[in-house]
Amino acid sequence: MFLVFNTIAIPLVLATATSGNIKITICAAAVTVHLAIMQATLRADTWLEFFDERLVELEKLDADDVAGTRVQVFSHPNFTARRRTWLASRRNFGLIGVAALIFWIWQTISQVQTALH
User: Fold this and answer.
1) pLDDT digits over 73-88, tens only?
2) Which of 8, 40, 75, 85 suits 32 as a labelling partner, its CA being 20 to 30 A distant?
């Protein structure tokens, strides 16, 4: 959704043939869409952390069993380090989303200033 929106909207806003009112409308919609996407990404990250913690608790319950933990996945020491690395896709998309949001805010301000002059 993020890529499709930007693939269509950016050329429309940067084109000289597009009217100023349409550019302002697209920019305002882009800021709104990107804020919603960023909020959804942050909430998804919060839910991932929540479910990771719950799964660690389930593994601890299994450890109380006589046979012990058969497989450590979520409670393994390397899991959290790998989940929180900057190479995680949700972090990369988050950085791209912040850059795109800054671009759209800049374009909105620019288009409004152009329309006022």
Assistant:
1) 777 778 877 777 777 7
2) 85
